[in-house]
């Protein structure tokens, strides 16, 4: 299990920037902590560079084809007419969500995908998960079955929390015995029963969005994954649960898994990732050390 860092990278950065926080450091302590963080990240990245690839993204292009709306040609009636007559729609609009993205991810890496809304981050993860087909001429190659965890990840609303835990574990390839053995640990991690001792007996549709998000994360992170992709799921829950989640990501990374994190929180990215990929308008603008990429992105964002 990875050790929980006494001081997180984002806390050191806030102190350097003169922002208030729960820690106070002398200039000498800040310099030493900063140097230690940089050294540890460089060591992990050097070790990961020799590890086996888990994801190879090669010239990935994703295009959404959107039909015109309204009556006539863009309506269901119009679509049926085209199917019968074998005509194509004259109002199809193509949206290039991802444009020629290429990178390699290796075991032991935790990679943050950053960028504005609509930049192509979530689309890239969906393609890695096999949920979106790439255009001809490019592809995605993975070692094992990637697991995508997003804020809208599906659980069955009419089933109880208890049943969803078991079904979720089975869907990840666990045996019934393994699912039962991990059940209590998942419940404890999610802290679902802290506010309602009977919550696991309630249908998921009775859960708040925060409760459901915590349970989703607890299920997905209950076993070591070859490739775990987390899409904004760290933005849910209270500060305590976010800290738990970030620690679990570090543990997954330490167990030689590969973790992708999509988040608008640069603090979460800095605290869980060693590498960051900045995507803008479907293209990679920068790929490298998490601090260097996050600093460049934040400076660019401030320019408006």
TrEMBL record:
**Top-level lineage group:** Bacteria
Gene Ontology cellular-component annotations: membrane
Q: State the name under which the record lists this protein.
A: ABC transporter ATP-binding protein
Cite the ABC transporter domain residue spans from the record. Answer: 81-303
User: Species name for this entry?
Assistant: Actinospica acidithermotolerans
The alphabetized UniProt keywords are:
ATP-binding, Nucleotide-binding, Transport
Protein family membership: Belongs to the ABC transporter superfamily.
Q: Name one GO molecular function term.
A: ATP binding
């Amino acid at each position: 299990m990875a050790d929980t860092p006494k001081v997180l990278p984002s806390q050191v950065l806030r102190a350097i920037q003169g922002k208030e926080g729960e820690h106070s450091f002398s200039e000498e302590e800040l310099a030493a902590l900063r140097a230690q963080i940089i050294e540890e990240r460089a060591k992990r990245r050097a070790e990961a560079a020799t590890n086996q690839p888990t994801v190879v993204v090669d010239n990935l292009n994703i295009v959404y084809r959107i039909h015109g709306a309204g009556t006539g040609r863009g309506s269901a009636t119009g679509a049926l007419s085209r199917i019968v007559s074998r005509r194509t729609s004259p109002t199809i609009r193509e949206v290039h969500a991802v444009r020629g993205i290429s990178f390699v991810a290796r075991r032991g890496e935790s990679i943050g995908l950053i960028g504005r809304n609509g930049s192509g981050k979530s689309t890239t993860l969906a393609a890695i998960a096999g949920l979106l087909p790439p255009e001809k001429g490019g592809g995605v190659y993975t070692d094992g079955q990637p697991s995508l965890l997003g804020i809208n990840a599906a659980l069955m609303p009419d089933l109880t929390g208890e049943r969803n835990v078991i079904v979720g574990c089975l869907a990840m390839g666990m045996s019934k015995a393994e699912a039962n053995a991990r059940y209590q640990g998942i419940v404890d991690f999610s802290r679902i029963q802290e506010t309602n001792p009977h919550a696991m007996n309630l249908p998921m549709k009775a859960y708040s969005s925060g409760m459901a998000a915590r349970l989703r994360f607890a299920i997905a992170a209950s076993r070591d994954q070859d490739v775990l992709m987390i899409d904004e799921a760290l933005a849910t829950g209270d500060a305590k649960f976010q800290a738990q989640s970030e620690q679990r990501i570090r543990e997954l990374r330490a167990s030689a898994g590969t973790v992708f994190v999509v988040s608008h929180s640069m603090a979460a990215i800095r605290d869980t990732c060693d590498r960051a990929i900045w995507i803008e308008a479907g293209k990679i603008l920068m790929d490298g050390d998490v601090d260097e990429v996050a600093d460049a992105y934040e400076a660019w964002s401030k320019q408006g």
